[in-house]
C-alpha cells in the first residue's frame, strides 16, 4: 500500500510538463486498447464470414440465386461484397456486349475496386496503433529527460546535495518512460498481429477474385462461342 501511495505522490508532485506527458501517454494507451478490441472483433468476424461464404459459394449453388441472397441483405462485407460487385458488373456488361475481353475487364475492375475498399476497411485503426507503438517511448523519454533535468537544476541550487533530494525527481521522471513503454508494447504487438491477419484475408480475397473471374470467363466465353 505504501508503494502505491508513494507512486501516487510522485505523480501528483511531478512538474506540469511531466504530468502533461503522462496524461498524453495514458490517453494514447486507452485509445489504442479500444482500437485493439474493436479491430480484433472486426478481423475475427471477417475471417468467419469469409469461410462461411466460401463454403456457400463452392456448394454448387446457382450464382444468380446466391447473388439474390446477398443483394437482399442491407450490408455486405468481405467476400460477399466482392462477389456482389463482380456479378452485378458481369451481368450488366454481359447484356450489352458479347466480347469476353470487354466483359471480363469491366468485371475485374469492379472487383479490384471492391477489394481495395475491403482492405482499407480491415486496415482501419492500424496506422494509429503503429504511431502509438513508434512514438510513445520517445514521448515518455522526453518526460524523463525533462524531469531529470529539473532535478539536477534544483540540485545545483543547494550547497549540500543528498540522494533523498534528487531521488523523487528522478523517480517521477522514470515513471514517464514506464508509461510510454506500457502504451507502446501492446500497440506494437497488436499491430503486427493484425497486419498479418489482414495480409491473410487479403490473400484469400485475391484468390477468390481470380477463381470467381475464371468461372465468369468460362460462362461468357461459352456464350460468345455459341
UniProtKB/TrEMBL annotation:
Major localisation: membrane
Q: Which domain of life is it from?
A: Bacteria
Q: Which GO terms describe its cellular component?
A: plasma membrane
| Function description | Part of the Tol-Pal system, which plays a role in outer membrane invagination during cell division and is important for maintaining outer membrane integrity.
The residues covered by the MotA/TolQ/ExbB proton channel domain are: 79-204
Q: Name one Pfam family in it.
A: MotA_ExbB
- The UniProt gene name for this protein comes to tolQ
PANTHER family xref list = PROTEIN TOLQ, TOL-PAL SYSTEM PROTEIN TOLQ
| Annotated GO biological process | bacteriocin transport; cell division; protein import
HAMAP family the record matches: TolQ (MF_02202)
Q: Which UniProt keywords apply?
A: Cell cycle, Cell division, Cell inner membrane, Cell membrane, Membrane, Transmembrane, Transmembrane helix
The family database entries (NCBIfam families) matched by this protein are listed as:
tolQ (TIGR02796)
Quote the subunit structure annotation. The Tol-Pal system is composed of five core proteins: the inner membrane proteins TolA, TolQ and TolR, the periplasmic protein TolB and the outer membrane protein Pal. They form a network linking the inner and outer membranes and the peptidoglycan layer.
UniProt record similarity statement: Belongs to the ExbB/TolQ family.
- Transmembrane stretches in the record are 16-37, 126-149, 169-191
Q: What is the protein name given in its UniProt record?
A: Tol-Pal system protein TolQ
Q: In what way does this protein cross or attach to the membrane? A: Multi-pass membrane protein
Q: Where in the cell is it found?
A: Cell inner membrane; Cell membrane
Record has Methyltransferase as a keyword: no
Amino acid at each position: 500500500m505504501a508503494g502505491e501511495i508513494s507512486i501516487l505522490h510522485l505523480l501528483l508532485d511531478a512538474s506540469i510538463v511531466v504530468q502533461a506527458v503522462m496524461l498524453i501517454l495514458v490517453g494514447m494507451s486507452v485509445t489504442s486498447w479500444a482500437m485493439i478490441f474493436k479491430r480484433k472483433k472486426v478481423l475475427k468476424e471477417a475471417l468467419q464470414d469469409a469461410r462461411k461464404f466460401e463454403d456457400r459459394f463452392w456448394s454448387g449453388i446457382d450464382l444468380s440465386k446466391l447473388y439474390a441472397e446477398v443483394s437482399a441483405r442491407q450490408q455486405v462485407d468481405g467476400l460477399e461484397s466482392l462477389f456482389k460487385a463482380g456479378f452485378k458488373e458481369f451481368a450488366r456488361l454481359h447484356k450489352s456486349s458479347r466480347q469476353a475481353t470487354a466483359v471480363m475487364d469491366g468485371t475485374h475492375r469492379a472487383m479490384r475496386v471492391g477489394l481495395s475498399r475491403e482492405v482499407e476497411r480491415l486496415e482501419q485503426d492500424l496506422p494509429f496503433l503503429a504511431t502509438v507503438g513508434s512514438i510513445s517511448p520517445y514521448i515518455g523519454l522526453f518526460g524523463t529527460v525533462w524531469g531529470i533535468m529539473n532535478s539536477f537544476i534544483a540540485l545545483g541550487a543547494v550547497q549540500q546535495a543528498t540522494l533523498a533530494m534528487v531521488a523523487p525527481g528522478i523517480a517521477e521522471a522514470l515513471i514517464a518512460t514506464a508509461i510510454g513503454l506500457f502504451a507502446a508494447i501492446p500497440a506494437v504487438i497488436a499491430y503486427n498481429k493484425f497486419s498479418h491477419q489482414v495480409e491473410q484475408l487479403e490473400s484469400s480475397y485475391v484468390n477468390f477474385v481470380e477463381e470467381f473471374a475464371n468461372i465468369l470467363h468460362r460462362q461468357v466465353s461459352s456464350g460468345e462461342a455459341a
